[in-house]
Amino acid sequence: MPGLTSEAETPTRCGFVALIGAPNAGKSTLLNRLVGAKVSIVTPKVQTTRSRVRGITLAGASQIVFVDTPGIFAPRRRLDRAMVQAAWRGVADADLVVLLVDVAHGLDADVARILEGLGKTRRPAILALNKIDKVAHDALLPLTQQLSAADRFSDVFMISALTGDGVVTLRTHLAAHLPEGPWLYPEDQLSDMPERLLAAEVTREQLFLQLQQELPYALTVETEYWQDKPDGSARIDQMVYVRRQGHKGILLGKGGQQIKAVGQAARVELERMLDRRVHLFLRVKVRENWTEDPARYRTWNLDFNA
Ligand code: GDP
Ligand code: MG
Fold it and tell me: Which ligand approaches the C-alpha of residue 73 most closely?
């Protein structure tokens, strides 16, 4: 048959793959690993990811659009509810769903709740047992059996998002199971996050990494000004909103040392990601009610009334 074996006849595929899981399962780490670049921020603290983050990659003739989601947990506050809703919206819009389970935690209450939610959707789902670098291999079989009992998954993969073990196999499988269709993004596009938001996320990541306990959850970052300079560098001005005067003091630190350290680390990371020189200016403002401000939700594409 003419043409069927030629390269040109290989159908292109394109689709959305939602990465879901409990907080800290490793979703953002996996997204970065799958895309081969940092597109989502990662910290050891739970609930770092506030919105849906898309990472785009090519695998053979397939363009895969991965959707990183906030962790799914029992929400209490408005921001929590909006984040969990965003995760489930990611599922509803996806062609395939990958449930990531931290093997060191196993089938805990969070995972049980997600399984229940998945049962109500008709999206095809794949199970990825993550962090296999942390446990002995014979511990994996019982967990696999336990989770497979839900009869919700077409396939099971064992991976380590951190070391990359098993990730290419998973990606190849996903690429082959997307619907046929034209690619949605230019070949070299890795993310659909606007640069201003990306820059704010990088600063927020440093705040998560450098500040203790609850403070990172009580703050948010906005890029207020961005200037591309003739010499190729960028001037970026950001505001960090905190909820209390006391937080502001901690954030600034003695003689402004703390905010300076955050700014320096964020600048280095931004220069690496943007591949250009960056002049980063951070300011801190107290705004008690930022978690009740609809504008904050719009920047992350979250539903204020979730
Ligand atoms: P998310 O909340 O699901 O997005 O999880 P993150 O990607 O932010 O990761 C949470 C923590 O788990 C971070 O400290 C990661 O370095 C760590 N982590 C992610 N994947 C792995 C893995 O495969 N092995 C190990 N040992 N740690 C991992
Ligand atoms: Mg995350």
Answer: 1
